Amino acid sequence: MATDYDAPRKTDDELSEDSIEELKSRRVDKSASSVDVDETEQAEGFELPGADLSGEELSVRVIPRQYDEFTCSRCFLVHHRSQLASESGGQMVCRECAA
Which of 9, 83, 88, 98 has the most CB atoms within 10 Å of its CB? Predict the structure, then answer.
């Protein structure tokens, strides 16, 4: 929307001169225009482009955990042994979780 900076602007006195009736009518107009919309219904009809991945095939190669790696008992991520912070009762914890 273009703004005409040369147009005269209302002063503070003119802004305060708005009648109570005019302000009330604006409030009624705003409340009358609001519509209750069920977000679930609205989301069901909306589909993202390219969202159907049923024909896709995964092309990721999964490598088993190596001898020098461990699985953290808190975050369940596989880390190198150099990231091992503590081990007690077979429960290994990485440095990030121990911090």
Answer: 83
